[in-house]
Amino acid sequence: MSARVLLLGGTGDALRIARALGPEHVYSLAGLGRVPADLSCAVRVGGFGGAPGLARYLADEGIGCVLDATHPYAAQISANAARACEQAKLPYWALRRAPWQPQPGDDWRWVDDWAGVVEAIKPYARVLFTLGREPLAHLGEVPLHQHWTVRCLDAHPGHARAQVIDARGPFTAEGERMLFKTGRYDVIVSKNSGGAATGAKLGVAREMGLPVVMVKRPSLPPAQREFASVQEVLDALADLNQRKIDA
Question: What EC number(s) would the UniProt record show (predicted)?
């Protein structure tokens, strides 16, 4: 197997991995957010054209392994990667970040999708969304009795009943407490992304007795190797490079 790795990224975990990659490897971003300037590896921005386009890219570029470190909710990208690797007969590896688990005192309301979110937040007046960009497409639908705050990576215009905060984690418990108190939120909306960078909001919601509308994770394809931490990925990549040297 070629030791050239295609890293599918866009998360903080993926960036940590990318910073450890040499120039023969490729870090792929969908095009959202800022492109890091401090990487030794090649950086590719943009889509591939679905699974068939990705399979062609893997063959053309001599990729030996695909490492999926995309967001746990980027289900379509992961599905395309798994299918492309199957077509190209290449290993598909994935970093599967553990989901958050409810703790004593938590009030989580589980929903499947955006329609479930809308139904779950109906009784509330001041809503904090921490779902990323999805609510931006619905700012024209804010009910008259509600005010929304949407926290996401990029700046976006709001209006009288919607505020958009552009912010990037990690977020601290102290910062979340200040945000929650200033915004006077009575419900938080979140994806079950897992990880430490954005998990402080859940502890603060618990402290303040706030309900959390939690969107369930989508199903993701199985991988030949699944890793629970960035360190496990780095160890596997080091082993892959060592086998290349020994070959």
Answer: 1.3.1.106, 1.3.1.54
